[in-house]
Amino acid sequence: MKLHFGEALKILFKTLPYIIVRIGIYGVIGIGSALYVGLLLLMAKVFGGAGTFIVIIGLALLFGILKFAQRYVLYLVKAGHIAVITELIHNGTVPEGKGQFDYGKQVVTDLFKEVSVLFAVDQIVDGTIKAFNRMVV
After folding, report:
1. Band of pLDDT at residue 97, cut at 50, 70 and 90
2. 75-100: buried (b, 16+ CB within 10 Å) or exposed (e) per residue?
3. What CA–CA distance (Å, rounded) separates 88 from 110?
4. Which pLDDT tens digit goes with each residue over 106-121?
5. pLDDT, tens digit, 9 for 90 and up, residues 35-91
């Protein structure tokens, strides 16, 4: 079996902007979460005893909504990244006149229904594997 580690690294570095965007998304989510938690703690201080209830509900909402949004947005970015990587492997470059993000966005929007279904399937498979691993352990 011949390994193509050098070629894989070249493609990875060609698509480095996608990796930077993913890191940026994590950073924005982290900063937004910190600000939201700070706001919740301020509300807890203002409302006293009822503020604890507000904080618990607010944190539950935050983590539920953020977990789904983070997974979905990052999945869409990953789908665009995979489309660009596939194009680079097959043709060596993205189509003329289009940047990586434009090409990835076009592919994801053209196949939005399929990408969304694959996201749901991915989440089901991920949950099944986690449940199986917990059962085995």
Report:
1. confident
2. bbbbbbbbbbbebbeeeeebeeeeeb
3. 19
4. 999 999 999 999 999 9
5. 888 887 887 788 777 777 777 887 888 778 878 888 888 899 999 999 999 998 888
Report helix angle 112-136 to 100-110, nearest 10: 90
Gap between the Cα atoms of 107 and 32, Å rounded: 29
Position 3 scores a pLDDT of 66
DSSP alpha helix (H) spans, the chain? 5-14, 16-47, 49-91, 100-110, 112-136
Extract the tokens encoding 10: 């070249």
For 119, the 3-state DSSP assignment is: helix
> Is residue 18 packed enough to be buried (19+ CB in 10 Å), middle (13-18) or exposed (0-12)?
buried
The model's pTM: 0.76
Pair of tokens at residue 86: 């596939």
